[in-house]
Amino acid sequence: MTLAESPRRSAAPPGLVRNDWTREQVRALFALPFPDLMFEAQRIHRMHFDAGEVQVSTLLSIKTGGCPEDCAYCPQAAQYDTGVKAEKLMALDAVLAEARAAKASGASRFCMGAAWRSPKDRDVEQICAMVEGVKALGLETCATLGMLTPGQAARLKRSGLDYYNHNLDTSPEYYSEIITTRTYQDRLDTLGAVREAGIHVCCGGIVGMGEGPEDRVGMIVALASLPVHPESVPINMLVQVEGTPLSGGAKKAKPIDPIEFVRTIAVARITMPKSVVRLSAGREDMSEETQALCFLAGANSIFYGPKLLTTSNPERDRDMQLMDKLGLRPMEP
Ligand code: SAM
Ligand code: DTB
Ligand code: SF4
Questions:
Q1: Which of 6 and 304 is assigned the larger pLDDT?
Q2: pTM of the model
Q3: Has 128 been annotated as catalytic?
């Protein structure tokens, strides 16, 4: 099917923000000939963004390992033997030292991740102090701490938190293959609490977990049908970590074809035209050519710095060289 024949043609004008994407329309986008899909993604990308700019975030794991959840991809789940040691919440000073270093190396956003199912109220108080300190350095702040109550979200907002990351991870249909300790609806509830508190939402998912093409359709439809699109949409390629169910045994996931990954980015860009789409985990093992295609497909954010939470990310020099080669510049906050 060509772009002219695509059912997407019958939808609202391209580039308009819509929350009523149907499975059929999203499926048709995935099925476009690659040149048509890339052209459409570029066109829409350029309606809302400077195509030479990339938002740069740095991640820090402020509370590592020992998590009670069973997310089949995650090296931090206590029940999998991955070699990740459970640690306590980092001290404020140590977090601020990392944030200063991130700023000095060129990041504009600092994202603090904790391996919790949900924080306790006393944890939230400690995180709020971190948010205040990081903000005072002139960085945007983001946190990912698990499920939140409306009261906790409101407290984080008062501390000045700019973004909260909480992913849908996959399609509603495939979800129970990946996580059994919390429901899709639990995730939607947390996203609702974050939105209601007035914090920007960062919400995306993971591909390459053994899901089928229809699950990638379902994941994008779920994201693009949220009442308000997430301001930031991380698309992660699964990082297979030994000891997790998805890296061995019966559930071992077949790595995703890089072109299918690029297609997922392009469809995210087209369906959520004003959202910043992050080429998230998985870059360490990705060729420069695949990353370049992701940027062409409308990705305009990366995690920058040699570590994600517990796994490796490209060294800063390597990313600087790639950005230079492609003529990309960091986005101003
Ligand atoms: N514990 C909190 C939660 O799950 O909401 C916050 C941290 S959790 C590590 C944040 C996200 O990282 C997950 O939702 C998942 O999308 C992503 N993630 C975790 N492990 C990953 C892996 N091995 N590969 C790709 N993405 C991963
Ligand atoms: C997101 O979507 N990806 C980031 C961030 N949100 C918190 C996490 C990726 C984690 C990859 C595995 C690890 O390093 O532990
Ligand atoms: Fe825990 Fe988050 Fe990892 Fe799931 S993704 S096991 S909730 S740290």
A1: 304
A2: 0.96
A3: no
